[in-house]
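Example for tutorial group B:
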């Protein structure tokens, strides 16, 4: 399945200034004023869901393996449980470009050393130059050097390589092959400083699509290979090969350690070299294609170059001159244990499937991983596919021969054999990393097993997230794989969302949350009757397509569902805003709302919808038929925009967005259906907003934002309608440009789901069991009676009695709660300034509770412990007994005492913040 560029595109519009020279560990940024510890985990897809552009085995340390991705960073293999460990989650919003990894080198002399070339785009979508990032502890911590040019981890040709290489004899020397005509660069100090190799003059001529804003850049240099036999330990390797994206001379060689260079004589021309692999017997294998990939390639060859004799031999399994060759060659590997064993993959054989070839005689003869059996379309495979780790990889397709489901792969730009284990092979595809542990069964007529080897790799770009509140806790819209219904966050989904085959927006009916709508882009070439909208009435378990869609639309855009699902409003990507009151069987264009407007439904009033465009806000009170512009001003007119209506409160709207360029950027709140908005002064930037279950003792939902607050970028939560914020991630958990899609869980306080642009979906949970804000003022309500903890007769005297009384909002019912720093709190009555106190430092059941001047005694210190139902119990630290309403009474004036903790209703308190 092709990766779609739109999944990356929202980041293009935001200006990014990446600053840096060197850092150790994580980026040195100031901490927010308040923070809370969270645990962060990936929502499991089982397969990654994105393009694996490179797999790199260390040649001297067994099981040291790295995988690089185009927008999702880099991973290290964990042999213990056959999983992958993400290594650059510290990269944040402002330096998001580093999540694109264009090359990787692992040191064969000092295996702890690791280097990556980081940067996502070489065109105008990214303003920052690229980096060489280096680690001396296998990627646990990093330092970096910024280059004087851009690096393109998500540009065409990203699976060519590796274009960053370490001298295997003198490992302080590295070479890097740049894009965009920037040539060859060299470091002699372990990657700290870099200088251009001016003697290397062919910087590449190939441009995939001249004049195109994405495909219109010079590809540049593709790979670098050292001949380790031409050096000794501590002395620089003398013979080095470089592959260049040039259809003329494309392979160059230096025999003096990189001082001078010349084209290798006799080399083939006409195609572009993707990989150059040198076997220990002196044979170099080079895979060629007429495109640079990862999507293109319709012709290609595989050549063997004998470095001793200078003889070039075309060893293509299917040569480009054959009518059966409709593909290039990409992934290429040589078995280090058996240098005559070579494998190569097609790039791209879209139909009926990718082909992997294997030779045991240096390319003289080949066998295929699958072949036709008795003629087309019958087929026999030498392998079995095990997708139990990610069952959705069958794409919900029942294939007809010669196709199979799941496919062997596509976009196989890299394929590697473990240098220590001839049975282990891995290869990357457009959706996952596949591999086998019994590869040599191929050679003896047996069957080898190909399985998903992508555990903990999460590389999807997230478009939208919803947590409806019943059924599955999360449903996602994703750039490459449409999306999933996540019934279990820790288990891979069984299937992807289909029909449409992509998803750009999701919404559900707040008052009937089993009704869900999603829109995307239908595959009309495969089915002319396909619809770009789907509806579910069972929480996303099953989907159906309405009988119609707005005339002329190609789909996409944004969907909004009325609170009771009586109406749908669809802002299409191309033909404007339409509404349907017939569950999609007919559509009518909405009036007085601009094309391309963002839309949302009120979560209480089923007739009310909202829209925003170019800084103007609109409201409909007739189910989306007509909109009226409100008088609201001050909203962002450009940049990303994300707005949502609050569940449970009609007309309550939160809007995040804007841009640095415009100077209008932040978070806005309306309580009057968008008639006016107030900008929150404590939020400098905001790009995503969502809601979750209210904190214990609160009624207003928790608000989650991806924002900059107090000068710190991160994920934040507010439990008091935005008055105060707590940062809930840290500098080690930033995930690039993340959080434009963000939502809380309506059933679990503290749970937040965060979508990223290449690291999949994260979910965070608070580690704090007691979300009390020190220094804040609360009213304590006993839910059994509904009455407040009260100082009798509004007295200010020491010894005044404490009882329950009807909540009247008086200051004698308000308590300032302050953290004592020893896991206890003091409660000070606002009207008197005196403490909640156990009389006489008593410990017996029934001892009276009163107010007294605060002396810091144990009988004035209380542990506040959250109950599972959102209430709290208050435990006197002196006696270990609970604050208790005598006899579970409900009458005004019922006394309050201490009593053995029973967990009963007389000992439960709601903390309502003032």
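The residue assignment follows.
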């Amino acid at each position: 399945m092709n990766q779609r560029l739109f999944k990356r595109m929202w980041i293009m519009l935001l200006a990014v200034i990446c600053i840096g020279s060197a850092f150790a560990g994580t980026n040195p940024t100031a901490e927010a004023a308040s923070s809370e510890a969270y645990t962060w985990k990936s929502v499991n897809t089982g397969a990654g869901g994105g393009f694996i552009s490179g797999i790199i085995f260390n040649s001297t340390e067994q099981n040291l393996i790295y995988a690089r991705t185009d927008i999702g960073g880099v991973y290290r293999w964990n042999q213990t449980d056959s999983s992958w460990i993400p290594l650059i989650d510290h990269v944040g919003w402002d330096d998001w470009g580093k999540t694109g990894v264009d090359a990787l080198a692992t040191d064969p002399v000092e295996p702890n050393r690791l280097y990556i070339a980081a940067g996502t785009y070489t065109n105008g979508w990214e303003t920052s130059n690229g980096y060489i990032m280096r680690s001396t502890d296998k990627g646990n911590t990093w330092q970096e050097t910024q280059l004087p040019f851009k690096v393109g981890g998500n540009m065409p040709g990203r699976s060519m390589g590796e274009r960053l290489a370490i001298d295997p004899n003198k490992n302080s020397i590295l070479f890097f092959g740049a894009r965009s005509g920037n040539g060859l660069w060299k470091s002699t100090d372990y990657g700290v400083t870099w200088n251009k190799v001016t003697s290397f003059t062919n910087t590449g001529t190939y441009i995939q699509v001249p004049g195109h804003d994405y495909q219109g850049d010079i590809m540049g240099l593709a790979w670098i290979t050292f001949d380790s036999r031409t050096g000794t330990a501590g002395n620089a390797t003398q013979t080095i090969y470089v592959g260049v994206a040039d259809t003329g001379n494309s392979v160059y060689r230096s025999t003096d350690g990189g001082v001078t260079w010349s084209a290798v004589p006799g080399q083939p021309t006409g195609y572009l070299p993707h990989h150059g692999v040198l076997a220990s017997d002196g044979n170099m294998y080079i895979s060629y294609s007429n495109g640079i990939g990862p999507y293109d390639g319709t012709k290609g060859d595989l050549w063997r170059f004998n470095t001793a004799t200078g003889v070039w031999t075309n060893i293509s399994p299917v040569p480009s001159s054959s009518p059966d060759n409709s593909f290039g060659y990409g992934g290429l590997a040589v078995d280090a244990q058996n240098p005559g064993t070579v494998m190569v993959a097609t790039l791209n054989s879209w139909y009926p499937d990718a082909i992997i070839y294997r030779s045991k005689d240096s390319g003289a003869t080949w066998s295929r991983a699958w072949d036709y059996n008795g003629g087309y379309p019958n087929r026999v495979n030498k392998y079995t596919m095990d997708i139990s780790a990610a069952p959705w990889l069958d794409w919900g397709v029942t294939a007809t021969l010669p196709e199979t489901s799941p496919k062997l792969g596509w976009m196989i730009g890299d394929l590697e054999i473990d240098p220590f284990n001839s049975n282990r092979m891995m290869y990357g595809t457009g959706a996952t990393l596949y591999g086998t542990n019994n590869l040599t069964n191929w050679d003896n007529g047996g069957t080898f097993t190909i399985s998903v080897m992508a555990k903990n790799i999460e590389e999807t770009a997230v478009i939208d997230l919803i947590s409806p509140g019943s059924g599955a806790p999360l449903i996602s819209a994703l750039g490459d794989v449409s999306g999933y219904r996540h019934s279990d966050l820790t288990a891979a989904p069984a299937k992807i969302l289909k029909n449409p085959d992509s998803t750009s927006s999701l919404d559900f009916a707040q008052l009937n949350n089993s009704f869900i709508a999603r829109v995307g882009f239908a595959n009309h070439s495969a089915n002319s009757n396909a619809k770009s909208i789907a509806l579910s009435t069972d929480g996303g378990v099953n989907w159906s397509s309405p009988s119609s869609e707005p005339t002329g639309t190609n789909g996409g855009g944004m969907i909004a569902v009325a609170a009771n699902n009586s109406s749908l409003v669809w802002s299409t990507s191309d033909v404007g805003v339409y509404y349907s009151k017939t569950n999609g069987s007919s559509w009518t264009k909405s009036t007085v709302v601009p094309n391309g407007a963002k839309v949302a439904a009120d979560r209480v009033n089923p007739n009310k919808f909202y829209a925003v465009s170019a800084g103007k806000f609109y409201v409909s009170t007739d189910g989306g038929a007509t909109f009226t512009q409100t008088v609201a001003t001050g909203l962002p007119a450009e940049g990303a925009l994300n707005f949502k209506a609050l569940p449970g409160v009609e007309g309550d709207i939160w809007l995040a967005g804007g841009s640095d360029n415009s100077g209008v950027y932040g978070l806005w709140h309306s309580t009057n259906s968008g008639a006016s908005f107030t900008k929150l002064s404590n939020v400098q930037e905001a790009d995503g907003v969502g809601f979750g279950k209210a904190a214990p003792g609160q009624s207003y939902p928790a608000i989650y934002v991806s924002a900059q607050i107090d000068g710190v970028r991160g994920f934040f939560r507010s439990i008091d309608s935005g008055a105060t914020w707590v940062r809930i991630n840290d500098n080690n958990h930033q995930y690039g440009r993340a959080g434009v899609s963000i939502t809380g869980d309506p059933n679990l306080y503290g749970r937040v789901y965060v979508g990223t642009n290449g690291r999949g979906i994260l979910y965070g949970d608070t580690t704090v069991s007691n979300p009390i804000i020190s220094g804040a003022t609360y009213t304590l309500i006993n839910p059994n009676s509904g009455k407040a903890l009260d100082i009798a007769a509004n007295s200010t005297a020491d010894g005044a009695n404490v009882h329950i009384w009807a909540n009247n909002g008086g200051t004698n019912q308000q308590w300032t709660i302050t953290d004592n720093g020893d896991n206890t709190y003091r409660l000070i009555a606002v009207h008197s300034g005196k403490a909640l106190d156990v009389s006489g430092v008593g410990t017996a059941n029934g001892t009276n509770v009163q107010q007294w001047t605060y002396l810091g005694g144990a009988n004035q210190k209380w542990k506040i412990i959250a109950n599972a139902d959102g209430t709290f119990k208050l435990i006197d630290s002196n006696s270990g007994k609970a604050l208790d309403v005598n006899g579970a009474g409900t009458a005004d004036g019922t006394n309050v005492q201490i009593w053995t903790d029973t967990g009963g209703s007389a000992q439960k308190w709601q903390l309502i913040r003032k």
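Helices lie at 6-9. Compare this with the pattern of hydrophobic and polar residues in the output above.
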